[in-house]
Amino acid sequence: MPDFLLYALIAGLGLALVAGPLGSFVVWRRMAYFGDTLAHSALLGVALGMLLQVNLTLAVTAGCVLLAVLLVAMQNRKWLASDTLLGILAHSTLSLGLVVLALTESVRVDLLAYLFGDLLAITRGDLAWMLGGLAIVMVLLAWLWRPLLSVTVHEELARVEGLPVSGIRLALMLLIAIVIAVAMKVVGVLLITSLLIIPPAAAQRHARTPEQMALGASALGCLAVLGGLALSWNLDTPAGPSIVVSAAGLFMLSLLVPRRQ
């Protein structure tokens, strides 16, 4: 197997393993639009990283984390409805990133690689950054699993039981921000949220417990990565969109299987 294909396979499978359980919370808490907003802000992080000549992965991670904190702060103040606020920030950060890139005349950027991913161009250094970030997210997610479940099932009851609901909610948003930042190379800014939503949505129909849904989502995500890379290799299609198409195909197949009661 060529090195570039091996790196792509490892990166895609690593992302799928983490996106399964984390995406389950995105589905349960109906946070898909929040994920899109963070994904759009990633392009602004790319633009600022190039402008300031700093590591792009660090710049994107810092940008996503700062936006997640800003979102939580603004939602707590309740200036606007959450969906309105997310819509404003999503399109504003994406457009601002494009404007900054256009003004940076000394830098030539392949926008398609950032918008739709360039999985087959991942280097050994990119892979190390990605696996390190995903490992941190997985450890934190395992540690916060029970509190996150409690807050998701019944937020007021969790507050009565003494759980720091605001802190747990912020932690979940920060975990999503980190995954989006490190996953940008795999499926791109515009498609990142699909890996956080489609496999968990397919697994939800046939799972009896939260843990079953998380494991099923990871398994389906891995199958989508394998199918997408096979499609890209044989038909010379873009790797990121091919993975999303594979995930969508698995979701359609899940609809044909009778739902477990």
TrEMBL record:
Report the Gene3D superfamilies cross-referenced here.
ABC transporter involved in vitamin B12 uptake, BtuC
Q: Which UniProt keywords apply?
A: Cell membrane, Ion transport, Membrane, Transmembrane, Transmembrane helix, Transport, Zinc, Zinc transport
Membrane topology, as annotated, equals: Multi-pass membrane protein
InterPro entries recorded: ABC_BtuC-like, ABC_TroCD
| Subcellular location as annotated | Cell membrane
**A Pfam family for this UniProt protein?**
ABC-3
Transmembrane spans:
6-28, 40-73, 85-107, 127-146, 166-192, 239-257
The main place the protein resides is membrane
Which superkingdom is the protein from?
Bacteria
- Mind telling me which PANTHER family this protein's record contains? ABC-TRANSPORTER METAL-BINDING PROTEIN, HIGH-AFFINITY ZINC UPTAKE SYSTEM MEMBRANE PROTEIN ZNUB
What does this protein's UniProt record list under function? Involved in the high-affinity zinc uptake transport system.
The similarity comment for this entry is: Belongs to the ABC-3 integral membrane protein family.
**Protein name as it appears in the record:** High-affinity zinc uptake system membrane protein ZnuB
